[in-house]
TrEMBL record, chain A:
SUPFAM superfamilies documented for this protein: SirA-like (SSF64307)
Keyword Aminoacyl-tRNA synthetase part of the UniProt annotation: no
Domain UPF0033: 10-79
Family, as annotated: Belongs to the sulfur carrier protein TusA family.
A single GO molecular function term of this UniProt record: transferase activity
Keywords carried by this UniProt record: Transferase
Origin superkingdom: Bacteria
Cited InterPro entries: TusA-like, TusA-like_sf
Pfam families attached to this UniProt entry: TusA
Protein name: Sulfurtransferase TusA family protein
Position of the signal peptide: none
UniProtKB/TrEMBL annotation, chain B:
Cellular-component GO terms for this entry: cytosol
Pfam families recorded: ThiF
UniProtKB keywords: ATP-binding, Nucleotide-binding, Nucleotidyltransferase, Transferase
Name of the featured protein: Molybdopterin-synthase adenylyltransferase MoeB
GO MF term (any one): ubiquitin-like modifier activating enzyme activity
């Protein structure tokens, strides 16, 4: 769960649609150093299906995924935490 | 976020930002990039348009000519309504409509030995695109870029054929390493005399724009040390390795050309426009 991680920055992408969802997460990660952690608040459906996969493709590590009562999700992503 | 792109820019350039080799920081480099396009004709028109669409923040356009009806078959930055208008003005208007992020600097001049270095220095351009259609200009641009230590893309198109190469300062080879001297007058026709399939400028000009974008982004391999030729009739690309000539008169170890030269333009060119 997210409480286990020291979150360095957070971003809410529930107000945008593909591909801006991933674009915004990617840009937020660019501002972090390798190993730092980003919290991402996103919608169910297309965003939760695609954003984590795209993050993995770019070498980041999804540390946790949790769903809130309203159906939205919270991701915890570590920059560059995954060997490509 | 410290990246200073606006939401509108994030949306406009989203297909760039998604690219792993570009990202938000790469797009910022493009917005901070400065490219000089010499000649807004068959090559320069598509090159400038793609650079503008890509968000290259400052684009210089150099041309002394006005839009002619016969230009419109390939020079897509100019429209029918622009016939008679200076090409730089027409180009600037098109770019302004395409992308408000781009500042266009215009130079309503024929490049020559007296002005080209000042034009390059005017905005300290990062990369220069040779979109000219004659040998005097091609040698002039090459020599000026070598002397100003600027990367540039050489290209030429005629009939169904095109070619391009990229010069990177300090790395060579330059255009003169391959073609040391001007061809004899009238030995080689220009596209004014020989004709050119309209799309040739689009193909080769957008390859030039690609080189400019890669250079600004610092990604990939440039066409430095190679001449890429394209034959539209046989649909053949050839990438020919070209060596750096250490005896080159302009970029060699002991250059003999240290001042710019204005070569004579074949008379028929001057008559035909």
């Amino acid at each position: 769960m997210s409480e286990a991680w020291k979150i360095d920055d957070t971003i809410d992408i529930t107000d945008v649609v593909c591909p801006i969802t991933f674009v915004k997460v990617k840009m937020a990660l660019e501002d972090l150093d390798d190993g730092q952690i980003l919290g991402v608040h996103l919608n169910e459906g297309e965003p939760i299906q695609n954003v984590p996969r795209s993050l993995k493709d770019e070498g980041h590590k999804v540390l946790s995924v949790s769903q809130a009562a309203d159906g939205t999700y919270d991701l915890v992503v570590q920059k560059g935490g995954r060997e490509l | 976020m410290s990246v200073s792109l606006t939401n509108e820019q994030i949306e406009r350039y989203s297909r760039h930002i998604i690219l792993q080799q570009v990202g938000g920081k790469g797009q910022e480099k493009l917005l901070g990039g400065k490219v000089l396009v010499i000649g807004t004709g068959g090559l320069g028109a598509p090159a400038a348009m793609y650079l503008a669409a890509a968000g290259v923040g400052q684009i210089g356009l150099v041309d002394f000519d006005v839009v002619d009806l016969s230009n419109l078959q390939r020079q897509i930055i100019h429209q029918t309504k622009d016939v008679g208008k200076p090409k730089i003005q027409s180009g600037k208007e098109t770019i302004a409509e395409m992308n408000p992020d781009v500042t266009v600097h215009t130079y309503n001049e024929l490049v020559n030995s007296a002005n080209i270095r000042d034009i390059i220095r005017d905005q300290d351009y990062d990369f220069i695109i040779d979109g000219t259609d004659n040998f005097p200009a091609k040698f002039l641009i090459n020599d000026a870029c070598v002397m100003e230590k600027k990367a540039y893309s050489h290209a030429g198109i005629i009939r169904f054929q095109g070619q391009l190469m990229t010069y990177v300062p300090g790395q060579g080879p330059c255009y003169r390493c391959v073609f040391p001297t001007m061809p004899p007058k009238d030995a080689v026709p220009t596209c004014r005399q020989a004709g050119v399939l309209g799309v040739m400028g689009g193909i080769i000009g957008t390859l030039q724009a690609t080189e400019a974008l890669k250079y600004i982004l610092g990604i990939g391999d440039l066409l430095n040390g190679y001449l890429l030729t394209y034959d539209a009739l046989t649909m053949t690309f050839r990438k020919v390795k070209i060596p750096h000539n250490h005896d080159c008169a302009v970029c060699g170890d002991h250059p003999t050309i240290t001042e710019l030269v204005d070569y004579e333009q074949p008379a028929c060119d001057l008559r035909n426009h």
